[in-house]
Design goal:
Layout (H helix, E strand, L loop, with lengths): L5 H15 L3 H33 L24
């Protein structure tokens, strides 16, 4: 990320204040803060949900192969 000087930061802040207005700026910051808290809680919950599933679920065994006698494919022929 490029290094921003204090003059550039001041210009960015002024543009944000002009776009949103001084009255709506605190409300917008509050809304962003709430959204970040919700996002953080959900991502933490997602990580907690995945860990127990990996431990609790036993490894599935492959299906058993049926053991049957091989059948003759040609009638009357015997293998020796």
């Amino acid at each position: 990320m490029p290094n921003l000087r204090w003059q550039e930061l001041l210009i960015i802040v002024l543009i944000v204040v002009l776009l949103f207005g001084a009255k709506r700026l605190p409300d917008a910051a509050r809304g962003i803060g709430r959204s970040l808290r919700i996002f953080k809680a959900e991502t933490k919950g997602l990580g907690d949900d995945q860990a127990p599933q990996a431990i609790e679920s036993p490894a599935q065994e492959p299906p058993a192969v049926p053991t049957t006698e091989p059948r003759e494919t040609t009638p009357g022929r015997t293998d020796t």
